[in-house]
Task: inverse folding
DNA sequence: TTGAAAGCGATACCAC
DNA sequence: GTGGTATCGCTTTCAA
């Protein structure tokens, strides 16, 4: 069914039907009513592909994330979507599962859709794609990667700073043997996170750090990595998880190993997703305001009328704040002060 | 940038470029190479809107869910998406947040996109929309609602059966005062779930049931409803949550009220999402195989070559199985056997 | 206030 | 093998 069908039945031209459907141009009230009636009768819905093709403009935003299952990404997506809807935009989301190849094809798919803007909130960004995006004239906003300028905006949260605050806090509680639990070490941005941890540890002389990296984000991955960590021989008094979602698994493995949190081992997460409050015990973590990030992303992609100036190519900074709950406490007295070191993946 | 640009630069007609891009029809190897080189140089990506418009077919599936945040829905979506990608389809997802109005516009949006098929996995289905969908010739698959036939398939999980198994089990453990925690009682399908609980309870004479319904799916909603339940005066020895996601909040509220699970109060969920295993204590729940549901949905929407016959309008049934973990135990001795009854929302 | 017609960027059929 | 062109369903001038 198409405009033609509606037009015939309503005894008008397709141009008129189009005007009615778009509230564009003058239409006599009676004609308008008649057209609308026919549209309803026929249950007609305009072909959006034809519409964007003819119209030129897209009114659709693309959002690409690494792992929709991790509430961190979902929250950002939802904030973008809500702003978008409020402004008459649609958004289509793509999930990459941390696969660079999937990211590439998702980006191309979005380009094919001629989206009005693209938010790339992923951990698997690679420089080649970065280049391609910069050369395109697609409006893009990145998360914690790349630099602003031209068609590119970005949002930075300073992960190292958050980790540093965490390590500092644990140190102040007397923790010396601290383990790190992460995932996908092969991806640059995630490797950087791991490195942030190592750097933070270095600031405190004679520290031992140990990391276990798994290939899955999420509770199951966190649990597996923790098992590794415990088996490694290091007996950490604290474990820093790369994010809250993984920390959930850390807690579980400790519990199953009869280690009490926080009496025996302290645990920290990152992001402050809602589940962090529902964990047992509630997680000490670093707050990253996902909703704000979503709103900023939207602003970066859709120039607002009331914006003082051109916002294209802007850089936004977000400050990570430590949120202390019940998964951290003073380090237990050290029964076995033998120091070991090592970093396995 | 369009086919024309590529064609000119490669010194061929747009028809040839199209052939190359679609691997359709014969093209001389050298021409093909030249075209591909130009495509790469220009970083050209075909306009998908034009493509679907011209081609007629869509190669995109629509998925509409009530709450992406609830892993139940996300898991189904991911299964559909994975099958889709394997078969060269794309999928676009829409979230309704349990709002019938949002469902309606999402459906219309999908129609506008001329999707090849639509999976409607929601709790807010209303009969009017149902009718509209049946009259359209869009291939649709529903979850736990409507009946198969024509362009409509559906997948049924027999929620009442699962709840009955749960209540039966709790009863066998000696529980008599059982509370129910749900959300969005105004929506028919969710109201049915609540009713399933009441029915199950009725099978056991002299039973008291009490329900607290909130307006949010999820842990926060679960917690709030549980507080209501505890304040109500009924002192339940068991709480049945409408799903695992809410049960997470139930557990938290009980913990904060110094009620031990399962010693003081037993708790059950529904769905068997992964988080159920990570809850403290791990949740007794009813397994609903989300991945299978996703695969079935895909099968219902995309007729497979190797399918013995027409699968359109088929009905799939799924059997809910009780999964016993550690959140349920024998009912504690009854200190206060005063019976109360009531059902608040 | 309305209609006719020129695109939008592809696909696909038909010639050559 | 390759090119020309009708067509998909809509938006958008331009005339009437």
Result:
């Amino acid at each position: 069914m198409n405009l033609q069908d509606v037009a015939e039945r309503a005894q008008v031209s397709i141009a008129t039907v189009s005007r009615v459907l778009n509230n564009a141009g003058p239409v006599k009230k009676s004609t308008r009513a008649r057209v609308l009636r026919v549209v309803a009768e026929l249950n007609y819905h305009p072909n959006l592909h034809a519409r964007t093709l003819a119209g030129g403009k897209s009114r659709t935003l693309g959002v690409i994330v690494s792992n929709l299952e991790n509430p961190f990404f979902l929250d950002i997506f939802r904030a973008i979507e809500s702003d978008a809807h409020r402004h008459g935009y649609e958004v289509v989301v793509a999930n990459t599962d941390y696969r660079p190849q999937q990211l590439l094809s998702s980006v191309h798919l979005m380009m094919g859709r001629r989206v009005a803007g693209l938010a790339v909130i992923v951990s698997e960004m690679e420089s080649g794609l970065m280049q391609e995006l910069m050369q395109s004239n697609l409006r893009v906003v990145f998360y914690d990667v790349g630099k602003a300028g031209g068609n590119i905006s970005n949002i930075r949260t300073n992960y190292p700073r958050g980790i540093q605050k965490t390590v500092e806090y644990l140190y102040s509680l007397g923790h010396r043997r601290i383990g790190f639990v992460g995932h996908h070490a092969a991806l640059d941005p995630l490797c950087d996170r791991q490195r942030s941890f190592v750097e933070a540890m270095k600031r405190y002389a004679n520290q031992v750090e140990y990391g276990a990296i798994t290939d899955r984000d999420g509770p199951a991955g966190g649990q597996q990595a923790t098992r590794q960590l415990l088996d490694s021989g290091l007996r950490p008094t604290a474990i820093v998880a790369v994010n809250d979602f993984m920390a959930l698994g850390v807690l579980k493995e400790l519990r199953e190993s009869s280690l009490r949190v926080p009496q025996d081992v302290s645990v920290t997460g990152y992001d402050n997703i809602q589940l962090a409050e529902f964990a047992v015990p509630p997680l000490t973590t670093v707050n990253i305001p996902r909703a704000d990030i979503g709103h900023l992303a939207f602003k970066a992609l859709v120039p607002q009328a009331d914006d003082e100036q051109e916002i294209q190519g802007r850089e936004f900074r977000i400050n990570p704040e430590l949120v202390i709950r019940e998964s951290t406490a003073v380090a237990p007295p050290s029964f076995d002060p033998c120091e070991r070191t090592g970093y396995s993946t």
User: Anything to note?
Assistant: The CA atoms of residues 210 and 342 of chain A lie 6 Å apart. The radius of gyration of chain A is 25 Å.
